[in-house]
Design brief:
By secondary structure, this protein is mostly helical. The protein has two domains: 66 residues, Fe,Mn superoxide dismutase (SOD) domain (Helix Hairpins); 105 residues, minor pseudopilin epsh fold. The chain has eight helices and three strands. Strands 2-1-3 form a three-stranded antiparallel β-sheet, with helices on both faces. A hairpin with a 5-residue loop joins strand 1 and strand 2. Helix 1 packs antiparallel against helix 3. It is globular, with a radius of gyration of 17 Å. The two termini are 29 Å apart.
Length: 203
């Protein structure tokens, strides 16, 4: 079956005032929809229909070079956005808890130190892309970033949390002031989902 645009787990206005209704609607219904449509075209040209997006993004080297880049671009765009929507919730807890909180404290010293480091990575990312919290190939928590639509899965990492810092992600409300978008993001982080991903990454 072709890939389909995933439904959001909340209404378009659910993340107000931190994420503007119009911005979220355009981001999901227009931008993510385009990635979905272009991914289906790229998959067909590459002859890899029937694979999951995870299978595709973790086996890019098996795709012929002449048709690989559109799969990277649109496959990453499809996955990254679907992942990003689940990173947010209108009923966000203020901070992580349980094993994830303990792991963040152990790796970064404190939750506040982690927030500062993650925010700095997102703020200082040059151009379009994403900031991530991942479990790296050594099994350690790591803050990283990727350009354009590169996905951590393709780098051997297990993503836990991301923020979209492409300009289209925040420009309608925050204009060119990316740090204000990043500050607002912390109010809507779905730490329960991040904890689920962390537990799965340890399995």
């Amino acid at each position: 079956m072709p890939f389909e645009l995933p439904a959001l787990p909340y209404a378009y206005d659910a993340l107000e005032p931190h994420y503007q209704t119009e911005n979220l609607e355009v981001h999901h219904a227009k931008h993510h929809k385009t990635y979905t449509d272009k991914l289906n075209e790229a998959v067909q040209k590459a002859g890899i229909e029937g694979k999951s997006i995870e299978e595709i993004l973790t086996s890019l080297d098996s795709i012929p070079a002449e048709v690989r880049q559109p799969v990277i671009n649109h496959g990453g765009g499809y996955y990254n956005h679907a992942f990003f929507w689940e990173c947010m919730t209108p009923d966000a807890p203020a901070a992580p808890s349980g094993d994830l909180a303990a792991a963040i404290d152990a790796r970064f010293g404190s939750f506040e130190t982690f927030k500062e480091a993650f925010s700095a990575k997102a703020t200082n990312h040059f151009g379009s892309g994403w900031a991530w919290l991942v479990v790296n190939e050594k099994g350690e928590l790591e803050i990283t970033d990727t350009h354009d639509q590169i996905c951590p899965l393709s780098l051997g990492q297990k993503p836990l949390l991301t923020i979209d810092v492409w300009e289209h992600a925040y420009y309608l409300k925050y204009k060119n002031v990316r740090p204000e978008w990043i500050k607002a993001f912390w109010n809507i982080v779905n730490w329960n989902k991040v904890s689920e991903r962390f537990a799965a990454a340890q399995a």
